[in-house]
User: Which sequence fits this backbone?
């Protein structure tokens, strides 16, 4: 259930941010109750949320903005390389071989890696906004 909610929040992140954040909060609560994340991960996510709020509230103060963005980027890298404890990722495939000469591989559903786009969105609020750099007229489209 938590994995489907996490996938849904990621799918809606680019188009409907409020729905994606609501789904993410529901996902974190569900993951806590199903022991996908421990208290350490909940504490880490609370600190990341606090830093993201500080980043958004004080975006006009350059030192606070830079320090919070660097901290969020370090947290995103740490989540990506599984540096932080408290995440019990689901093993989906275990020692599967595709062919006779292939090496066995294992695949996990990574809860921590899926949180990285949300952190990057806090660093760069215009991440999923696509506006043209220049508005060209019909005449400018012809060579």
Assistant:
């Amino acid at each position: 259930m938590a994995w489907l909610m996490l996938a849904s929040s990621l799918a809606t992140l680019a188009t409907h941010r409020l729905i994606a954040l609501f789904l993410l909060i529901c996902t974190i609560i569900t993951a806590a109750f199903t022991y996908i994340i421990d208290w350490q991960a909940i504490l880490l996510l609370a600190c990341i949320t606090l830093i993201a709020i500080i980043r958004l509230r004080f975006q006009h103060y350059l030192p606070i903005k830079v320090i919070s963005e660097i901290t969020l980027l370090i947290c995103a890298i740490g989540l990506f390389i599984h540096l932080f404890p408290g995440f019990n990722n689901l093993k989906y495939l275990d020692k599967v071989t595709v062919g006779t000469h292939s090496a066995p591989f294992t695949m996990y559903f990574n809860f921590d890696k899926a949180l990285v786009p949300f952190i990057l969105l806090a660093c760069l609020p215009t991440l999923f906004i696509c506006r043209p750099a220049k508005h060209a007229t019909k005449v400018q489209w012809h060579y």
Remarks:
- The first helix runs from residue 2 to 12.
- The first strand starts at residue 90 and ends at 96.
- The chain has one domain: 2-129.
